[in-house]
Design goal:
Helix content: 55-70%
Oligomer: single chain
Largest sheet: none
Number of domains: 2
Shape: rod-shaped
Keywords: Membrane, Transmembrane, Transmembrane helix
Order of helices and strands: HHHHH
Number of helices: 5
Number of strands: 0
Structural class: mainly alpha
């Protein structure tokens, strides 16, 4: 934990009014943004597939985009649409 705090506060003047912003930016720079992006794409794709299967594609996309895998559970709990989705050609 001390190592993480040292990395987060590296180069930050603690008496500065915007010290918390600099610490936040240092923490954000430590995140693997590419991996987070691709995981989000996978979550939305699976959510769209589950939504299509349940007849609610847009709901699947929105819930997966908002809550990730938890959104999949919500999509599966929503009752099926009365009209079945069209078959792919």
């Amino acid at each position: 934990m001390d190592e993480l705090i040292a990395k987060a506060t590296q180069g930050v003047d603690m008496s500065s009014p915007d010290a918390s912003l600099h610490i936040f930016m240092n923490l954000m720079n430590m995140l693997p943004m590419a991996a987070l992006f691709w995981w989000s794409v996978v979550f939305v794709a699976v959510g769209a597939l589950l939504g299509w299967w349940r007849g609610r594609t847009m709901a699947g996309i929105v819930w997966a985009l908002t809550l990730g895998p938890i959104g999949w559970i919500i999509v599966l709990l929503i009752p099926k649409s009365a009209k079945p989705p069209p078959l792919p050609r």
